[in-house]
Design goal:
The chain has 458 residues and is α/β, with parallel strands linked by helices. The protein has 18 helices and 14 strands. It has 2 domains: 4-222, Rossmann fold (3-Layer(aba) Sandwich); 249-458, NAD(P)-binding Rossmann-like Domain (Rossmann fold), CATH 3.40.50. The longest helix has 32 residues, at 224-255. It is elongated. The relative contact order is 0.08.
Length: 458
Amino acid sequence: MPSKKSAMLSKDHKLIEKFMDGSLKIAIYGLGHVGAPLAAAWLRAGCHVIGVDTSSEVLTAATKGRILIPEPGIAEAYAEGLKTGRFEVSSDPIDASRRSYFKMICVPVLNKNMSANLSTVCSVATSMGIGLKKGDIISLNPSVPPGTTEDVVIPIIEKSSGLSVKHDFCMVYNPERIYEGRALKDIEENYPAIISSIGPDSFRISQALYSIIFKKGVLTISNIKAAEAEKLFEGVYRDVNIALANEMARFCERTGIDFWEARYAANSQPYCNIHKPGIGVGGACIPVYPQFILGLAEQLNLRCNLTKMGRELNDSMPVYCVKEAMKLVRKFDTEKLNVTILGLAFRGGVSDTRLSPTYAIIEELKKSGVKKIKVHDPLVTEDPNLDRDVTLMSNLKASLIRCDLVIIAADHQGYRKLGKKELGKVVIYDGRGIIDRLSINALNYSAIGFKSISEGNR
């Protein structure tokens, strides 16, 4: 007689087989920065995916095997899925819920003030609940304040479905752990999946399910709130450590120390990992997660001083760096000054402009009296959020013509190769510390954490 354990393993194997042969379908709600790579990972594993989105532009692109964000491997996975009939798109969230066994909520939760906006999550949860069947699995994937899954999402699903999470369906929290530009690789190869769940056999089922695409395995956490907090801790850790790097860089500037040289030497010690300083911290992750923690802490009358101070210091960097950059051109007539900002994306290698420090840089330049501003980015071709009097360019050479001051705001790979030939005698403020000083005219160069010897003479 087979043991209970072997019977469970056999059951898990059969479940995986049903996903792999497409008889059990996966519905992914939101084909953006999180949902698209997850959809691609399931498709590459051989599963049947229903991509759900409210954007006709996103859905139209997906039906043609295309994606609107530059992420390697996703368009190819879409195209292959369409070719084999394993990928379909839908604008009907209820129908997609009815036809799927596993449903993933991958919609954004970011408010303009960097607080959590759960309205879209709630809307999806309601529709999903209407189409929910007994035995189905639901996963919430965006980074959210602790308590969101249990206190907000589950009650909505139970109300709209008439089912109970304790007896009828499984609810999983699985925080996305991706780095833009390599999202698919992060899912499939780089990190284990973090999961916590509620429902009948939910840990066993979700562990078997996620092991299909996560080659690094599955790390289970007993409490959903702890899993929600885990992802926020990742962002807070990086934000606070970037703030420390920024503080040390500013200290070095005042004391005549080359921060980059000191950092390199310090990090040769295995217990030291000083992060890179920069002109600003952008994106929908690192500057946002501390706010989720701080918002909840305020409700609980708790102090998170270090988290708060780190966020404030990083928020101050665009203003600080522009002031330092303007010191380099103090002899120029500010109103006639031509400034080119290199980088509109929040960091190099991506086209994502969400919370990019470049917007604050532009605002500060205008406050300083600068009227002629150009922005170059190799990956961002248009941006409705950019001021109309600011010119967005995709040709790097053209953006440097008749330029008096260059401010490097994003560490795109192409900017690292700039030298005397491209820059000539243009004054440069390197807000990312990426330019090779030996390849340029050092007298016209200054960077965060490093001041040229002649700066005081300008």
